[in-house]
Amino acid sequence: MANVLEGLASWIHQVFVLQFDGWVLLGFVAQFFFTMRFVVQWVASEKAKRSVVPIAFWFFSLFGGGLLLIYAIQRKDPVFIAGQAMGMFIYIRNLWLIANERRAAAMTKVD
């Protein structure tokens, strides 16, 4: 059991301490923003007492996903790059749809 714990401690040190640099810091910051989208969505849903996806969700998705994409490109991780790149299209499209909906609602109010 001591060998397992020693091996785990060595692995944690290798992964979280020895590899730490500016890119890893960027990755953690990006992951924080990406995670905040779920917090924002959860708080909005609790407040409304129903499932809600606020616009802030899409902005956190875009910002966090964009930073994670930069991180993935720097790390040359094809799976991570493909996943984050696809997400970027979805986040931008949702923000575009929201902007169009708001524009149409504003024009309806003017008429």
Topology overview:
Layout: H1 2-18, H2 22-48, H3 55-75, H4 78-110
Your description of this structure?
The protein has 111 residues and is mainly alpha-helical. The chain has one domain. The chain is built from four helices and no strands. It is elongated and about 75 Å long. It starts with a helix and ends with a helix.
Q: Helix-strand pattern, N to C?
A: HHHH
* Tally of discrete structural domains: 1
How many DSSP H or I helices? 4
How many E-type strands? 0
What can be said about the biggest beta sheet? none
Structural class: mainly alpha
Instruction: Give helix % range.
Output: over 70%
- Strand percentage, roughly? under 5%
Distance between the termini: 74 Å
Indicate the overall shape. elongated
Please supply descriptive tags for the structure shown above.
111 residues, mainly alpha
Quick overview of this protein structure:
The chain is an all-alpha fold. It has helices at 2-18, 22-48, 55-75, 78-110. The protein has one domain (21-110).
